[in-house]
Amino acid sequence: MIVLENLRKTYATPERVSHALAGVSLRIERGEIFGIIGRSGAGKSTLIRMLNLLERPTEGRVEIDGQEITALSEAELRRFRQSVGMVFQHFNLLSSRTVIDNVCFPLRLAGMGRREQRERAHEVLALVGLSEHAHKYPRQLSGGQQQRVGIARALANKPRLLLCDEATSALDPETTQSILRLLLDINRRLGLTIVLITHGMDVIRAVCDRVAVIDAGVIVECGDVLDVFLHPRHGVTQSLLFESGLDAEGWRDVAQGVQGSLLRLSFKGASTLQPLLSRVSRDLGVDLSILQGSVGRIKDTPYGQLVVAVQGQADACARLPEVLRAEGVVCEELHQ
Ligand SMILES: Nc1ncnc2c1ncn2[C@@H]1O[C@H](COP(=O)(O)OP(=O)(O)OP(=O)(O)O)[C@@H](O)[C@H]1O
């Protein structure tokens, strides 16, 4: 488990003092994929670089699996870093070395013998689907393949933690999906904890279990991805969702003059696939008009969210939320 306690980072330049992190506390569970999202300059890179102390906090502590890494000596820190893999936005491969030599590089630094290095490198190249490309140079590969090399290199030393710094930001949408599927696969097969930073909600939705939203060096919202997507509380989260086409407030444009009470209904998991609404509206004798709707998948869980106007007998309309809640639907009453 990773525990971050009251992390602060202040950069002072002659022109200005910048509080990149202004008191961040987080817990990240072993085996989860944890996403950190925020706008440019929010503090994401500073935060992720504290998990392997590429950046030292001005204040606060970082504990990983019970070990306080902020208290390690330089020699201990070098050893610790071998147990943390990192994947970068621009891959950071050595252009004059072949794929296999890039993957062997961290193994050599860890003092592994040459034959073992090659064996391990072949194992991780197979894991990322690049066995046939072992003897090519990075420039002979596509961006997605180069990132696979970056991932293989990060996995070479069998890390306990994988850090991904905007790992898909330089890739096209299709390649992004294939790299995200690879990360999911690695997380499941190896049980590896992954912490990633991104400015894209789509990345969070595709792979993360939990998410923290950072703004101006502060975590403004943190929770299960499904809950944060369906019930964003903070304005920054809401606007990031809006920009990725998941606008929780779109119903307002069409609700003018609509009769009846307004409800936002959130379905997740099995209830998404049931013909629940038509059954309940038939039983209660109420009519529903849909003002906004979205359905999709968050990681493996199907979800749906509808904003509806409810019309009918007053007592039947009043009972609707209670009946739906009993079926596991989250109902919020909305006001124009
Ligand atoms: N080495 C540095 N010296 C001075 N200021 C810095 C330094 N590194 C980061 N900052 C400042 O700290 C703040 C947070 O930067 P950081 O790079 O962590 O944000 P970010 O969310 O990763 O942004 P981006 O998405 O653009 O990479 C910014 O205001 C930035 O200008």
TrEMBL record:
GO terms for molecular function: ATP binding. Residues 2-241 form the ABC transporter domain. The keyword Translocase applies. Gene3D superfamilies: 3.30.70.260, P-loop containing nucleotide triphosphate hydrolases. InterPro entries: AAA+_ATPase, ABC_transporter-like_ATP-bd, ABC_transporter-like_CS, ACT-like_dom_sf, MetN_ABC, MetN_ABC_transporter-like, NIL_domain, P-loop_NTPase. Keywords: Amino-acid transport, ATP-binding, Cell membrane, Membrane, Nucleotide-binding, Translocase, Transport. It comes from the Bacteria. This is Methionine ABC transporter ATP-binding protein. It comes from Yanghanlia caeni.
